[in-house]
């Protein structure tokens, strides 16, 4: 592998890299850094945990001049990911005098204004809050030389495309731009064609959705039995675990039950205040909490190397979410384990995901001798995507009630059944999602 010192990075940046214990570059870093440093745009596709944050951050730090205004802009879909990116850049920039500010919905505007007034060279932002700052004039883009769109596919899913276009139209045309995404849907390719100039494409790991290095298994059980098995799997773990749930309600219930069982667990979900979310993540990152219970808002915003186990308490809503979730373990080449609990109503969705997994997958029902009895209608259920209120096999999107400790309005996977289109509760609100002039989140 190529060493960082061979990539042309200056001594101050190399000191920051050494402080983090890194010496050799990951493949995406080796490929992307030299290209960005020549001033050419980049489109990068790589799975989570591959080191793409360092790839664009190190190239940006190399070209930015201290005390010369805001020159670098990084946009991320969620506040957790924005915070994580900022923290990583600050570590690499430790010896450079380059300052970083993070702006996102849910944090008081005054804190962000103070940071900006002290002078920064790089801004990491969620799109909604960035637009708030642009409209009030606290951030200007006239000196921007480097722009990064990270997790572009998630920003697309969260409805940020118009916001991104608005922001990019305000930025100078003469800039180096990179776009990173785990998947490349048509809308993302269209965005890259419109705003990137002759980009160099790096489709590293584009076909590797297997979760290599992760021991993956699944267990088909009744929904009401999930908590029993959760305790059984978590008890022997010496490191940290993450439990992913489909909704904020489920997240709260699972965290509450873990507390009752005397586990050190914290939770993250969309209705929590930013202060509480940061408190939870701080406890988990510092090791004061052993278990994090979270919705998918956290599947792209956690970089904790000690995570040994990921449990999908609910099958994810879309196939790619599965790989983002399990990617929270086995970080940077380490080993890890992922277990998915499949309720009877989720068998069809799980079958869709299984087709994408290219490594051996353990059936825990066979291994543990657990008999399953799926009702005939569900056995015949054909997998279908859930858009526009379409039926999931024999259960309609908005019609089935019951669920996990609640009645009416949630199905047995803990999802909200309100009919029509579902709001994403973990979206950063910014300027577009407000009621009465106030940010939703």
User: How would you classify the helix and strand content by structural class?
Assistant: alpha/beta
Number of domain units = 2
Content of β-strand: 15-25%
Kindly report the CATH topology of the largest domain: Rossmann fold
Please state the second-level CATH architecture of the largest domain: 3-Layer(aba) Sandwich
In terms of quaternary structure, the protein is single chain
Q: Could you say which overall geometry the principal axes of the C-alpha atoms support?
A: globular
Query: Which percent range fits the helix content?
Result: 25-40%
Count all strands and give the number. 16
Summarize model confidence as the mean pLDDT.
81
**Main sheet specs:** 7 strands, parallel
**How many separate helices?**
16
Superfamily (CATH H level) name of the largest domain: P-loop containing nucleotide triphosphate hydrolases
Separation of the first and last Cα atoms: 43 Å
Please describe what this structure looks like.
The chain has helices at 11-19, 27-37, 52-63, 79-92, 109-117, 127-136, 152-157, 161-170, 186-195, 226-234, 248-260, 274-286, 319-326, 347-354, 364-368, 376-379, and strands spanning 42-45, 72-75, 100-103, 122-125, 146-149, 176-181, 200-202, 214-220, 240-244, 265-268, 291-294, 307-312, 336-342, 361-363, 434-435, 438-439. It starts with 10 loop residues before the first helix and ends with a strand. The longest helix has 14 residues, at 79-92. α2 runs parallel beside α3, α3 (52-63) packs across α4 (79-92) and α6 runs parallel beside α8 (161-170). The model is unreliable at 377-441 (pLDDT under 50). It has 16 helices and 16 strands. The strands form three sheets. The chain has a seven-stranded parallel β-sheet, with helices on both faces. It has a seven-stranded parallel β-sheet with strand order 10-11-9-12-13-8-14, with helices on both faces. It has a two-stranded antiparallel ribbon with strand order 15-16. α13 (319-326) links the parallel β12 and β13 (336-342). The chain has two domains: 4-202, Rossmann fold, CATH 3.40.50; 214-379, Rossmann fold (3-Layer(aba) Sandwich). The chain has 441 residues and is α/β, with parallel strands linked by helices.
């Amino acid at each position: 592998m190529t060493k960082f010192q061979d990539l042309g990075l200056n001594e101050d940046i190399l000191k920051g890299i050494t402080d983090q214990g890194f010496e050799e570059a990951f493949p995406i870093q080796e490929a992307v850094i030299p290209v960005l440093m020549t001033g050419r745009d980049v489109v990068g596709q790589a799975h989570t945990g591959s080191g793409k944050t360092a790839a664009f951050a190190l190239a940006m730090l190399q070209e930015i001049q201290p005390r010369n205004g805001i020159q670098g802009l990084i946009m991320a879909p969620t506040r957790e990911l924005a915070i994580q990116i900022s923290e990583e850049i600050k570590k690499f920039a430790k010896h450079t005098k380059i300052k970083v500010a993070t702006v996102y919905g849910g944090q008081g505007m005054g804190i962000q204004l103070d940071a900006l007034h002290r002078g920064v060279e790089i801004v990491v932002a969620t799109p909604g809050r960035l637009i708030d700052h642009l409209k009030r004039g606290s951030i200007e883009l006239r000196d921007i030389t480097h722009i990064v769109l990270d997790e572009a596919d998630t920003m697309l899913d969260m409805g940020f495309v118009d916001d991104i276009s608005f922001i990019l139209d305000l930025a100078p045309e003469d800039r180096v731009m990179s776009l990173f995404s785990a998947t490349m849907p048509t809308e993302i390719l269209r965005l890259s064609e419109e705003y990137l100039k002759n980009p160099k494409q790096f489709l590293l790991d584009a076909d590797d959705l297997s979760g290599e290095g992760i021991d993956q298994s699944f267990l088909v059980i009744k929904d009401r039995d999930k908590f029993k098995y959760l305790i059984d799997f978590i008890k022997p773990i010496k490191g940290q675990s993450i439990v992913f749930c489909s909704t904020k309600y489920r997240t709260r219930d699972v965290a509450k039950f873990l507390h009752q069982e005397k586990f050190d667990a914290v939770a993250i979900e969309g209705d929590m205040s930013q202060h509480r979310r940061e408190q939870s993540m701080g406890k988990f990152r510092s090791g004061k909490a052993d278990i994090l219970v979270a919705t998918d808002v956290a599947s792209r915003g956690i970089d904790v190397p000690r995570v040994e186990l990921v449990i999908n308490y609910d099958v994810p809503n879309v196939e790619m979410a599965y790989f983002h979730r399990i990617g929270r373990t086995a970080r940077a080449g380490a080993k890890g384990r992922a277990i998915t609990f499949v309720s009877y109503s989720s068998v069809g969705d799980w079958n869709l995901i299984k087709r994408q997994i290219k490594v051996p997958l353990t059936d825990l029902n066979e291994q543990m001798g657990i008999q399953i009895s799926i009702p005939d209608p569900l056995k015949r259920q054909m997998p279908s995507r859930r858009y526009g209120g379409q039926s999931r096999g024999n259960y309609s999107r908005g019609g089935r009630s019951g669920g996990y400790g609640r009645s009416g309005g949630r199905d047995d996977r803990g999802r909200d059944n309100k009919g029509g289109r579902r709001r994403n509760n973990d979206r950063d609100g910014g300027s577009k999602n407000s009621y009465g002039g106030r940010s939703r989140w």
